[in-house]
Amino acid sequence: MERKNAWSKYTSKKDSKAVFDFAEGYRQFLSSCKTERECVRFFIADAEKKGFKNLDDIVAKNGKLKAGDKVYAVNKGKEMALFIIGSEDLQNGMNILGAHIDSPRMDLKQNPLYEDSDIALLDTHYYGGIKKYQWVTIPLALHGVMVKKTGEVIDVNIGEDAADPVFGISDLLIHLAADQMDKKGAKVVEGEDLNVIVGSIPGFDKEGKKEKDAVKANVLKLLKEKYDIEEEDFISAEIEVVPAGAARDFGFDRSMILGYGHDDRVCAYSSFMALVNHTKKLKKTACCLLVDKEEIGSVGATGMESRFFENTFAELYNCLGDYSELKLRRALTSCKVLSSDVSAALDPNYASAFEKNNAAYLGRGLVFNKYTGSRGKSGSNDASAEYVGEIRAIMDKDNVFWQTAELGKVDQGGGGTIAYIMGNYNMQVIDSGVAVLSMHAPCEIISKVDLYEALLGYEAFIKYA
Ligand SMILES: [Zn+2]
Fold this sequence. Notes:
Elements: H1 13-32, H2 36-49, E1 53-54, H3 55-60, E2 70-75, E3 79-84, E4 94-100, E5 105-116, E6 119-127, E7 140-147, E8 153-158, H4 178-181, H5 185-188, E9 195-199, H6 214-227, E10 237-243, E11 248-250, E12 256-259, H7 262-276, E13 285-291, H8 308-319, H9 325-333, E14 336-340, E15 343-344, E16 366-369, E17 373-374, H10 385-397, E18 402-404, E19 414-415, H11 419-423, E20 428-433, E21 435-436, E22 444-447, H12 448-464
Helix pairs in contact: 1-12, 7-12, 10-12
Bound molecules: zinc ion (ZN).
């Protein structure tokens, strides 16, 4: 049972135009939104243009909502939920598109800046699952915020503009790497050695003498002049070290995109666009939920484990003038979810890690994973057969190209998603998403046609589920 390649739907230039146009918007989004905060800012701006109102403002004014209204809610600048109110009673549940907007990276430590051997460096702690050796010798940028004691928030974004400097982590030259090359992959570059080089000119005193840590002092002087940042401000900062530069079209046929953070912004962007560009009346309320902290276990205030979603849903219910605790519980139980996260595309260079009859293929459309997990499906949501049947029917109704997959061979590894946390509400949930090559590497690869089929699949789900 082989699934067809989705490009077969778009053989003429005219047919494929929509695929390439949508991908170009995504490529630009991916190039400029490299942190969860930057994604949320982009999504708020686009949603407001399309008529979405901030739910907090409506709640503050004791306002009411009705069918057809569009609202969004933001959690601490790093997580958001968007809703289009349907005509049916909310007790019948919502159709939810979920995805995450955090990506693997390196975060600066709280006391990061130091000098060693006349070089100034920033110490990091990596975030999410990475092969550490992939993050050396590539140009890196700094994105994030620094918060002063006054509460003033300074946005940091250095390394993206062509006129900006970039930063990076050195690697040992091959000529001296005899010991390093004998190490296991996990130890070739160790976490504590992911130190980002940021300067090398020392400051000198009047007599031309270099004092101790003068390179570090000079970097601090520059930071003070340019950004009004003091060393202590690093304590209340969230600076993410990410690959510098724009996402690029990939391949002679420009069929793919190479870029940082496809996991899981490819699903977040297509889910978001499916919702905000929806213009027809909906029976069921539709929701797009974009969460943070998935890469470290969905924990904390802005992760899927947080009460944010539940509380926001309660506020929404209340604005419909019909709130009760029991009704809210009924509504939660009745929700249907496409919990989207990227899938591993079968990689011909490493085919032995996959089981080819149950692998995702680049270009074969939106991927559904009945279950994820590892070592006997541990940590998986495992969608019910009935729900999978319903999803098949929904996708086929709009001729969406889709495929089913597992993450690699049994006992080869595995991974989890936010799906089981939505499942805890007793919702119907299935894992879905876009296939990726080089997942969790600084530059990942996706197919433009998979991105487009995901959009079509999400649109079909909001309409028919
Ligand atoms: Zn992911």
